[in-house]
Amino acid sequence: MNYTDFNLKSTANSQGYSLIELVVVLFVMGVLASIAIPPFLSWITLGKIDETKSLLNSAASECIQKIRTGSSPGDIKPAESFNGISGDRVSPLGYKIKTNSNSCSNFVLEPKDSSDALRYTLGFKINSNGELTKFAIPANNQASLNSCKLWAGSNCGITPEQQAEWDRLAKVEADKKLCNDSFYNWKNKPSSGQGTRWDEKTNTCSLQTWVFEGNVQPDEESFNQARELKYKESCDKKIKEVLASKTTGGPLVYPDCGIQEFFFVEGVQVASADEMKLKIAANQEKKCIADRESARLSNYNGKYGPISGPGSCGDIVWMCKGVQVGSEEEYKKLCPSPAPPPSTPTPPSPGGGGSPTCTPTLKILGLC
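RESULT FIELD:
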């Protein structure tokens, strides 16, 4: 072969592939890409889903730790309490935190794109006992079904019945927290008396509980024993002081006597408000009768009464020369006009129906 022959062959080889060959190669590469790229993209998405599940597991673990220290699941917000589970962290993974499902009692992530066929809604619930439940709603594409089941097991695809039961349990948990928070806030003041806390047997806020100075008592008898043991001596001393002061009124409560209410009438203890009012009225009526008799003995002449007060205080009588009569006619027969002037100063409110000075006793009876 001479140099001329070699140069001709090299020129022919340097022409490369023909257009038809290139089209065939591109077609084959396109077919291969159409087969390989979708699974490749799915693998990427499934990897992001796995990363999302890892974040949820970390959040659930920290939730349980918080609950074991006394926190309520509904009060713990993973987006606020944990690094890596906020909306900004899950957004690059194609997820967002579901509205109103952002606490440890019910934490849910859902796809940012509602038309996403591969990503699925997933989350967890934790009750006040620290019991964890994972759940998920499968996506339309079955390629992620195994991932869903690996996360939630049989709870991958919750039924309406499951959702209704979980909603019911969530309401029970919320009612329980409200009930017990109210009870323990009252108890820890500290308080004494009877309060209501959560009844685990009936799942209602109906368990009547006796508390003495912030300590729960087994029953009312134990409550009374604890109160008597603490207050008996100091309470007895206080009541003696009140009796000596001739106090009238009630209900009165003294720190030395716990929550017991007392009622007094002129230094005499009575059992109830009704009995107190009856005795006050009886005493007031006795006072009216005594004043009337004093007027008679002082030779009061003329009409006497009515006097503001209970019972016979409102009676009208006539008096002449130390004699009390029941009518004006009898009075005129006994003391013809003109009547002699009274021999002593006129007592308060005779004959004119005036009101006596308003006293604490009359205020209690509602008479002034």
